[in-house]
Structures are given as C-alpha cells and as structure tokens.
Amino acid sequence: MEPIQIAIDGPAASGKSSVARLLAARLGFLYVNTGGMYRAVTWLALRRGISASDGPALVEAISSGGIFFDPGASEVLMKADGEDAAAFLNSAEVNAAVSVVAAAPEVRRILVAMQQRFAEHQDVVMEGRDICTVVLPRTPFKFYIHASEEVRQQRRAAQGLHDSISKRDALDQTRATAPLDGAAAVEAGAHWIDSTALSLEGVIGEIVGRMKDRGLVIDLGRWTVTRRPE
Ligand code: C5P
Fold first, then answer.
1. pLDDT level of residue 161 (50, 70, 90 thresholds)
2. What is the pLDDT of residues 27-53, one digit of tens each?
3. Which amino acid residue places its CA nearest to atom 5 of ligand 1?
4. Cys-Cys crosslink for 123: which of 4, 91, 163, 213, Cβ 3.0 to 4.6 Å?
5. With contact defined as beta carbons under 8 Å apart, do 94 and 42 qualify?
6. CB of 38 closer than 6 A to ligand 1?
7. Closest ligand 1 atom to 171 CA
8. What global pTM score does this model have?
9. Residues forming beta bridges with residue 101, ordered by sequence position
10. Phi, psi dihedral angles at 214 (to 5 degrees)
C-alpha cells in the first residue's frame, strides 16, 4: 500500500511547523521539517567556517559524514558533526544564513533525495517550501499555508526569536532553484489556506476536511486514518 504523504508549504512563520508537527503527532505519521534540514546544514557550515554560498564545499561536508539525519518514530533527528543540532537550529546566526545555503542547487539535490526517501515507505507530514512542487509532486494531499506579513512578524516576536522573515522570504522567492511560489504550489494542486485569522486547530480542521474530500477516512476520536475503499 502506498504511504500517505501530506505536503505543506508556506512562507516563514506562517505557522506550518506547528500545524505539521501536531497533525503528524495526532495521526501517528513521521514529521519531516525540511527547513530544519537546511538549518542543520547551515549550522554545520557555521561550525566549520564554510561559506554559506559555497555549494560544492557544503556538499563535501554533508557527504563526508558531517550531517546525520535519522528518521525516528515521530520525527527526524538531526546531527551535525555528531552533535544534536536541535538547540541551534533557530539561532539568529542560522536564521541569517539559511536562505543562502538553501539557494545552492547542489545542496538541494542531496536534501531533496533524502526527503523523498523518508516518505517512500512511511506515512509523513512534510513541510517546507518546495514539497508540493518538487519533493512530493505526486501526492494528492497538498497544502499551502499563507498568513499576512504582520501576523507572521508578530508570531516570531512572540516566540522571542530574532528572525528577519521578510529578508528570508525575498531570498526564498527569488532564487533560481525551486523558489517559494504559492501560485506554483496551487497550480500543482495545493489547497490554499489563509491562516491569518485562524487558530492552530482551525488550520488543522481545514486540512483534515480536505483530506476526507480527497479519499481518506479519518476517525477524529481516535485520530486514525485509512484510505476509502475504491
Ligand atoms: O521552514 P523554515 O523557516 O525553518 O526554513 C528555513 C529556510 O530553509 C527557509 O527560509 C528556506 O531558505 C529553506 N527551505 C527551503 N526549502 C525547504 C524548506 C526550507 O529552501 N523545503
């Protein structure tokens, strides 16, 4: 049986990580935070003094064992140079450099292949910028979560994080390889959700409703999911 792949894209601080993590936990699916993977590579670059724009050097660092991504039961454990990266992924330094790292086509090629492997044999909720268009183009369960810039700025500020989200969005939208593009995601079949005035549960409710429309039977009492018989 084909695994169920839920793809979620959107700009920085749109709320997609909170939505994807909670949805995956409830459904018992693997949560794959692809932004975290680009962040772990960025942290490795910072540790080793590799320029964020040096794609070939980044690839060499990744493939020579600098990065370790282990899909556990519920989420992907990320290590750089053998050290758990979790505590460093949202630092101001990583925020400032991650979009430059993510613009390198060589880096994207490697990480996209890993992301596709994670989703090959298990049910996943995967979130990022190019999941609907590049990583999981064949899944019928695609979502693009948008929110006004004002609300996104407020969400980051409330988290106490220093993150220049408009600068990151601008870099992510204008890069040559797999740019962040809401219209392209919708064209690829993504359901557009404006989360500006929605709660976390509101967004999850909209996703679950859409998944039911697309052939899944979801028992909300037990949060079990099955495919509707053909
Ligand atoms: O999702 P998050 O904001 O943590 O992502 C951090 C950065 O990683 C993004 O600003 C973007 O540059 C990059 N990214 C990407 N493709 C993805 C996920 C994240 O380019 N699929």
1. confident
2. 999 999 999 999 999 999 999 999 999
3. 35
4. 4
5. yes
6. yes
7. 12
8. 0.96
9. none
10. -95, 20
